[in-house]
Design a protein that fits this description.
29% of the residues lie in helices and 32% in strands. It folds into three domains: 2-90 and 99-146; 167-206, no CATH class; 209-358, Nucleoside Triphosphate Pyrophosphohydrolase (Alpha-Beta Complex). The chain contains eight helices and 14 strands.
Amino acid sequence: MSDLRLPADLAWVLLVARVISVAPPLRRTTLKHHALRAYGPASVPVFVKETGASADAVDLRNLDPGEAAEVGWLLEVLTGIEGALGTAPVLAGDTAGLGPAPAEDWSQTAGRILAEAMPEVLAYRNRLPAARVAALIPQAAMRAWSRLLARQEAPRDMGAPPGDGKVAITRHVYAHGGFFALREMEVAQRRFDGTMSAPGVRAVFNGFDAALVLPYDPVRDRVLLIEQFRIAVALRGGPNPWVLEPIAGLVDAGEDPATTARREAMEEAGLTLGDLIPIGRGHPSPGAVTEFYHMFLGLADLPDDASGLGGLASEGEDIRSHILPFDAFMQRIDDDAFSAMPIAMMGLWLARHRDRLRAGGGPG
């Protein structure tokens, strides 16, 4: 049996994520002459020595060997601190990655996202080295944030599933972990006649939430699109894998999609947006992909010199922007001249609301 002393917020995450059971006796305590600082790929709280300080901690006692091994591996992934079991995980030596003290609501913000990400992180134990799993945590956290955002949504489509809406997953495997993840499962669901379907094997491409924004200048009556190379189009054999698209970017863990849209407009096209108007949100391919789009129209000043080159070199982006008059933009939609499907939906929304926007009717 093993004992472990953890920062109180980190212990809460492990309990909520069922990494450890509630069976071992828990005892809250105060660790004197230590402070809490954020550290590691997940910015989790760790103890650092600091004379006169004190830190809230939880003692976990009598962990069984299997549970202790799992927690020890997880702590190595989250913090890089090896051999934490039997002592408090205290950071010593190299503190280059040391951040500020965790926010007071860490367990309910970043900690809540981390708890949601734990099943994916733990799925890679005995399959990938701890350092490799640590590198996947930012993507796992973004996927976790997507699920948390989904739980905040009101029912859509028909409003209610058949019967009790039961979905039974009897086998679940993270078949691949990387920037994207591939999940395979055996699943049965409630049928419209009230019976349960036979179990069937499904594979799901596990992506992220993304924010898409179409910049529109209501005074000059023009839009801005960006052009960049897209590998999926090339792999399908498309004749031109340099694709015209709305500005878009992945929603970081804990980030509001509207914030993502504004950030990406600046990064990809150097644009500071005015009013940001929700257009719609949804799945581009709900049968196989978890990716979810938050689409916006962004009011912007688009003079003739607003187009040009952009993108972040740190992300390997090579982007060219284009300004299209509204009529030319709609003609291209009518001519089926865009490869990226969201453009058509966003353009048709704009056509429906354009007169109001041009009259200064605002985002309402």
